[in-house]
Amino acid sequence: MRELRIIAFTQRGFALAHRLGSALPARVSRCGQPLSLAQWTKQAFSFADGLIFVGAAGIAVRAIAPHLKSKDTDPAVVVLDEKGRYVIPILSGHLGGANALAREIAALTGGEAVLTTATDVNGVFAIDDWARGQGMSVSSPAAIRRISSTLLEGGEISVSSDWYISGTPPRGVAVEVDDESADVRITLSPGGGEALYLVPRIVVLGVGCKKGVSRGQLEAAFLSLMRETQIAPQAVCRVCSIDLKRQEEGLQAFCSARRLPLETFSAQTLSRMKGAFESSDFVHSVTGVDNVCQRSALAGSRGGRLLTGKRVFPQVTMALAARPFYPTWRTEHE
C-alpha cells in the first residue's frame, strides 16, 4: 500500500488537504504544527511514496531541493493551489508516479493536471510510466532517456520479455524474441549493455532466523542470495516469515531499511503449503513447522512457485518464490 503525505500552508489549503487525505488516503499535516516545513519534508522524503504540497510551487521546490538524489529513488512530488484548480507534478513524474497521482488528485478536485513531461505532452508511449503501472522497477534508469528520445522522434524500440504481454503493443513498440538485441528487456536477472532493464516486483523473500538476529546478518545473507541467484534486489516485493518472528527487531529493521513489508503466517497456515520442502526436526520442535523460509515464501507468493530451495547462512535461512505475473500493454490511463 502506498504511503502518501500532504502538507498545507494556509487554513483554506488545510481544509482541501483534509478532503484529499480522506479520499486518497494520505496523512495530512499543517505547516508548523508541530513540524516545520523543513522537518516535515525531510521525514516525508525518507519514508513516503508521494509528497503533496498544497500551496505555492516555489515553496515546495525549495523544500525538496536538499533531498534530491536520483530519478529512480526520489518519491513522487505534486503541488496544487489551495483551490485545487491546478495540480502539478514536479518530481518523479513517471518512475515515482507523480503524473498519475496528479491526475488522481485533479479528478478529486475538479481541477487540471498540468503535465510537462515530453511523452505526455506529445501523446507518446512512456516506457517508465508503463513499467511503474505494471509493477516493475527500472534497474537501468539512465537508458530511459534514449528509449524516450527514440519514440519522440518517431522511431521504433524492441522489447523482449520473460513473460507473455497481453494486448496490442503501442505505436513504436515491437516485441522481439531475441532478447540479446532488444532495446528493453523484462526479466528478474538484468545483465549489462545499453538495454533498458525492467524488473517485475514479484519475488517474495521467505526468512527463518534465530532469536536476536541482527539487521546486518540478514542484509549479508540477502545480498549473498541475490548474487547466487542473479536476481535483482529490486525484484523483491515483500518479506515473509512465521508469526513467532513478527516482533524480531533485526528482521523489522531489515525490512524498514529496504522499505519492504513484513508479512507473517501462523504455523498452521505454513503447514498447509504443498511442495517439496527441506525439513528440519529441530525447526519443527521450535516453531511447529518443519521449514519456515520455503513455506513462508510460498505462502506469500499467493499461488506462485518456489524459485530456490532453503539457503543456510549464519543465524538465517532464506528462500525465494515468485508471484504470478500477467503484464499487459494497456495503461492505467486507458
Overall description:
There is one protein chain. With 334 residues, this protein is an alpha/beta fold. 33% of the residues lie in helices and 23% in strands. The protein is built from twelve helices and 17 strands. The protein has a six-stranded mixed beta sheet, with helices on both faces. Helix 8 (215-229) packs across helix 9 (249-258). The longest helix is centred in the middle third of the chain and has 15 residues, at 215-229. The protein is globular, with a radius of gyration of 22 Å. The chain starts with a strand and ends in a 12-residue tail after the last strand. The mean pLDDT is 94.
Short key terms for the protein model shown above:
12 helices; 334 residues; six-stranded mixed beta sheet; alpha/beta
Distance between the termini: 22 Å
- SS field, number of helical segments: 12
Low-confidence segments:
none
Number of strands: 17
Strand and helix order: EHEHEHEEHEHHEHEEEEEHEHEHHHEEE
Please state how the strands of the largest beta sheet are arranged side by side: 2-1-3-4-5-6
Mean pLDDT: 94
Q: By helix and strand content, what is the structural category?
A: alpha/beta
Reported for the largest beta sheet, the result is: 6 strands, mixed
Radius of gyration: 22 Å
Strand content: 15-25%
Specify the helix fraction band: 25-40%
Q: What's the shape?
A: globular
Short description, anyone?
This protein is of the alpha/beta class and 334 residues long. The protein contains twelve helices and 17 strands. Strand 3, helix 3 and strand 4 form a beta-alpha-beta unit.
